[in-house]
Design a protein that fits this description.
With about 375 residues, the chain is of the alpha/beta class. Helix content is about 35%, strand content about 15%. Helix 1 (about 35-50) links the parallel strand 3 and strand 4 (about 55). The N and C termini lie far apart (about 40 Å).
Length: about 375
């Protein structure tokens, strides 16, 4: 029987337990994306707190395209030395650290003039009002190269793997979404064409980093839009990504570029999770179907709160890992706590107050 506290492997990476820290943008990097003492401390505290593997906050790959202020970046070699320090700090406590890579696109607020922002098609963004520039085939090649260079830097800096961010409405997830992707060339239309950029990206990164280096991806289980990616389509895309050489898939959901998603609590970081255990692990239905359909590990994210719920999913489904975002903001040592008392309820109330505090700290901890 599989257990939450047991060692597993994803390619060359050994994971000491099945808990993963979900990516959280802390807004604590310098203006140009470099590490700060406060940011090192957050990751070291998480590693000390017993988590098996940490996914970093999203890290931008294009110098001129920063989805949010004070994000981490990796657009040139100057970051390698910073990140060597980071990976060493995390590794000394027996945890892994995987760098999440992103190109934001029209969902980003901090972009240069919109004529320079890449998008699949020039469709106005429902959140920001920005209309991006339709990417040429050369732009698509350049984007893939930016990710490849970023992945090579991540490997050189000692990260245990990379995660490609293709969820939540950022550029890669826009390609999958018929509303934002209106292309009529080989990158738009039928699902296989909308997925092509992701498939090519996985293949290109694989070729660069080698067979044994873990490549992960975060994807929407569905967009929750009328003309968005559906759950069935997401499963088909994941099969294509597995065939292309992906090592693990993290599932989330909700296209944040659509007011309907946020207004109806259908986004990635939902409220009301703590009202009932039925609300927990809210992408579990998709996770169960997906995990039965593919061979690579599925990481379930979103509303994982109690050990008994996660153990139940481990017993009754093929889901392999559980990622936690907000509970780890509130309690970076939650996994050590659980290793001593599996019945403990996490402190996080899913109020989303942390989105609005400096350093994305938990409001409960600010009051202490
Ligand atoms: C403050 C904050 C920042 C986030 N930043 C990212 C990010 O950089 N990349 C990402 O993929 N998801 C990000 N997320 C979403 C989380 O990774 C996760 O999918 C979501 O919080 C649901 O998991 P939870 O219920 O365990 O919090 C963020 C969430 C919060 C609360
Ligand atoms: S502010 Fe604290 S309690 Fe509220 S969602 Fe964030 S981590 Fe959880």
């Amino acid at each position: 029987m599989r257990k939450l506290f047991e060692e597993t492997k994803i390619k060359g990476m050994t994971l000491k337990n099945r808990f993963i820290k979900a990516a959280v943008w802390e807004a604590l990097a310098t203006e140009d994306g470099h590490m700060t003492p406060a940011l090192y401390d957050i990751y070291e505290d998480l590693a000390k707190g017993g988590i098996g593997t940490i996914l970093t906050g999203y890290t931008y790959v294009h110098r001129d395209e920063q989805p949010n202020p004070n994000m981490m970046a990796i657009y040139d070699d100057s970051f390698i030395e910073d990140y060597k320090v980071l990976t060493q700090k995390v590794h000394q406590h027996g945890a892994n650290i995987v760098l999440q890579l992103v190109y934001g696109g029209s969902q980003s607020y901090l972009n240069p003039p919109s004529q320079n922002i890449w998008g699949p098609s020039p469709v106005v963004n429902g959140l920001t009002g920005i209309t991006p520039k339709e990417m040429t085939l050369e732009d698509i090649r350049d984007l893939i190269d930016l990710f490849v260079q970023a992945a090579l830097r991540a490997k050189a800096a000692g990260f245990d793997g990379v995660q490609l961010h293709a969820a939540h409405g950022y550029l890669l997830s826009q390609f999958l979404c018929p509303h934002y992707n209106r292309r009529r060339d080989t990158y738009g239309g039928a699902l296989v064409k909308r997925a092509r950029i992701l498939v090519e990206l996985v293949k290109a990164v694989r070729q660069a980093v080698g067979e044994d280096y873990p490549i992960l991806m975060k994807i929407n289980s569905q967009d929750y839009m009328e003309d968005g990616l559906t759950s069935e389509e997401s499963i088909e895309v994941t099969k294509m990504l597995e065939a292309a050489g992906l090592d693990a898939i993290e599932i989330s959901g909700g296209n944040e570029s659509t007011p309907h998603v946020l207004e109806n609590n259908l986004g990635p970081a939902r409220g009301k999770v703590n009202q009932s255990k039925d609300n927990e692990s809210y992408f579990k239905g998709h996770g169960k179907t997906l995990a039965a359909a593919i061979s690579i590990p599925v990481i379930l994210t979103g509303g994982n709160r109690h050990i008994d719920v996660m153990e139940g999913l481990l017993e009754t489904t093929e889901i392999a890992y559980f990622a936690l975002g907000r509970p780890m903001i509130a309690e970076p040592d939650l996994i050590v706590t659980w290793s001593k008392d599996m019945t403990k309820s996490p402190k996080c109330l899913s109020c989303n107050g942390c989105y609005h505090t400096p350093g994305k700290r938990c409001v409960l901890n600010l009051k202490e």
